[in-house]
């Protein structure tokens, strides 16, 4: 698996799209810091970009890499290699390369602007950690979709639909549910609903860490009471970890049963 991971990683590192992805974050970080000259405000602005963009890029890259490397994958399947090792290696290669582009692209500008001497270092670290989690989650979901659909158009369509649902549609349904059942106690419902969506969970963690949960009103107070505690933080990261593990396990089982 490690040899395939290494090959996939270096293959993506040679790809121009990886450099474009790196350059985008590098330029974004430099522009934000040049305009704001305040690390804390830049982190808040970056949150809105990362929460939406990172899942989209992870989804597109995951599906695209699977379909583009299909012939090479069939060649590997003819060798005495485990199917799970092949697909896990490819998945980890894509996820790690995207995470590195994110960390380097944003880390370099912030370090140049004195990140290590600022109190915003912990907020920025949480931003990068949640960004890496989202990269691994949506890349794994993209591989699952690609493994389940031979047709490229269907695969891309389902992948974009999944991102659209979790990034936009889910929030609309969630808010409508809160409005419709506002007469009932919705504390636990709102907490569970947030944890069932990795994008919402990541956004809530960052908002609470930035101490601007008051903008969320009563809901923010509930989130602060739970997610603001050490136990809530552990549960939140455990849920993000679970969002990574479950799709990865499905990649293993799906690759074993799939007829190539």
From TrEMBL:
Transmembrane domains' residue ranges: 20-36, 42-67, 88-112, 124-147, 159-181, 231-253
Statement: the UniProt record of this protein carries the keyword Transmembrane helix: yes
The UniProt record lists the keyword 4Fe-4S: no
Keywords: Membrane, Transmembrane, Transmembrane helix
Domain of life of the native organism: Bacteria
Protein name: ABC transporter permease
